[in-house]
Amino acid sequence: MKTAVGEGDLDKAETLTKRISHHAASAHDLTADPIWHAYGVVPWIGPNFTAVSEVAAIADEVATDAVGPVLSAAGDIDLSSLGFSNGTIDLSPFAAIEPSLADAASTLREAESSARQIDADATLPPLADAIRELRSNVTQATTLVGSLHGASALLPSMLGATEPRNYVIAMQNNAELRSSGGIIGAIALLHAENGHVTLSQQASTADFPSLDTALPLSESTIALFEDRPGRYLQNITNIPDFTEAAPLIAARWQNRFGTPVDGVIAVDAVMTKNLLAATGPLAFGPFTADEDNVVGLLLSEIYAAVPDPTMQDQVFAQAAGALFSGAMSGAEPKKLVTALAQSSAEGRIRIWSAHEDEQTIIQRSTLSGALPRDTASATYVGALFNDATGGKMDYYMGAEISTSVGTCEGEPTTQLQVTWTNNAPVDAATALPAYVTASGWYGVPPGSVRTLVAVYGPAGATASHIDRDGKSDAVQTTMLGDRFAVQHDVTLAPGESTTITVEFHGTGAGQRLTEVAHTPLVNDPKIRRTDLHCAP
User: Fold this and answer.
1) pTM, whole model, 2 decimals?
2) Hey, which bits of 354-482 come out as E strands?
3) What is the dihedral of CA 365, 369, 373, 377, to 10 degrees?
4) Residue 529 DSSP class
5) Which residues contact 174 (CB under 8 A, 6 or more apart)?
6) What percent of the chain clears pLDDT 70, i.e. is strictly above it?
7) Where are the alpha helices (DSSP H) in 197-308?
């Protein structure tokens, strides 16, 4: 059915929907009677009966209350393109589809929550696989329909249906990590009017000298990074919560150029891979990039090919202009929408609006870049990585993150382990450009990488044990909202690795459904669930 909708074959989609609804309703009826539920309390086999009943109920709910509204919306707008053509989006259909998508999004959120709470580990392997497939499909649908609903509610006003809008776009370089992705390497202004978007101005970070008096910062930001994010544009994205960082970026642009700013969009360099899958190869400066080589080109090779930092800035500006032009005029709309949705799911796009009604809607989605909120269906822990080398060495860094939950010393416990590894060449000190290694300019030996690694626990829990490679180490601590955070200052030579372990006790700890949020890295970290072994 999803394929049929994507291809615009709504007659086929409607036929498939009726079949889906029939089978889902039948399954629900067959697994909802008292006899079936009675088997659910039988030892060993009971969880299997219960899980089948829950899966059938979710399928019936989605088929009845979500699929229909999505088809209704698809009849009013081409969901594969969202009305996008030649750099302009037709904003007129969005008001019509918003109510239908709101209903579907609400149903899918409830279904996703229910699917997360099914105990797959207590069922037989074939059923466990089916439960995990259900979760994956419902989560994918929830993300997609939720994004579409957000678009239907936000795009008309944000793209200038009633008045022109200006947005600062901050491009983050993951080769020098910051909490939300990377150091701001290039910055520009987008202008939107009646659905037409243009790149109206580009600037360099050199246009924003450091401030003698820092902009106001939260206590937690100062505790982790002193006042640097308030004085240096490049460090604003150190701030873990984008809803705090974005207004500062807007303020720096307004103070420098005087243009009122309606919002801020932050994207990272890795999302260019997704964009080039939609646009095809693009040329900028002396380079030609495609989806296979663009990340390595922008985050590594360019520094050897163009040693002068000023020239590098010019090439990055050319790359940004080429990407924007390609996306607005050269991309197949369906592929472009897919690329943006994938980048959003990976946390590589963050959006903030200066208009309170719009920000309220954005705040409900992952696009807000806010710290995650624990819910009845999921508890979050997180890892933040911030470079202190002063170079571009994070292209070579890798991470593994594991979570364990259970009980230690009679207390509900969540254990978070973060392993950070320097995979740079052994001869990095001499083989890599000085601009990449920082050549010791900030006290870090060339080839080594210094990183501030912060981990935070579930809302309401506190750290009961902290170690690095099994030993105690100096740390910084603070509260990120209601989350206890611990930050280590780590320096690793090529080939070296370190593991930070933090155990959290108390409210929110020990929850089976614990998920990991993290800084978007060049290479996605390996995330796994392990058995809990309580620390000494």
Assistant:
1) 0.87
2) 379-387, 397-408, 411-422, 449-456, 461-468, 476-480
3) 50
4) E
5) 181, 182, 268, 269, 270, 299, 394, 395, 520, 521, 522
6) 99
7) 219-225, 228-231, 242-257, 271-279, 294-296, 302-305
> What's phi and psi for 36, nearest 5 deg?
-60, -45
Question: Is there a contact between 511 and 405 (Cβ–Cβ < 8 Å)?
Answer: yes
Copy the structure tokens of residue 138.
């419902």
Locate 292 and state its tokens. 């296979």
- Among the listed residues 403, 402, 395, 390, the one whose alpha carbon sits nearest the alpha carbon of residue 438: 390
**HSE (side-chain half, CA atoms, 13 Å) at 106:** 8
Are 53 and 36 within 8 A, CB to CB?
yes
Rounded distance, CA 45 to CA 131, Å? 16
CA distance 39 to 475: 52
- Are residues 457 and 508 in contact, defined by beta-carbon separation less than 8 angstroms? yes
Tokens of 318: 């050319």
Contact 155, 367 (CB under 8 A): no
| Nearest of 244, 513, 269, 219 to residue 363 by alpha carbon | 244
Distances (CA, A) of 80 to 25, 74, 277, 286, 477: 29, 9, 16, 34, 46
Q: With 80 as the cut, is the pLDDT of residue 46 above it?
A: yes
> C-alpha angle with apex 498: 492 to 503, nearest 5 degrees?
140
408-439 residue pLDDT tens = 999 999 999 999 999 999 999 999 999 999 99
Nearest to 352 by CA among 241, 272, 255: 241
Written as one letter, the residue type at 414 is T
Two structure tokens written together for 407: 């009980």
**In terms of C-beta density within 10 A (0-12 exposed, 13-18 middle, 19 or more buried), how is residue 439 classed?**
middle
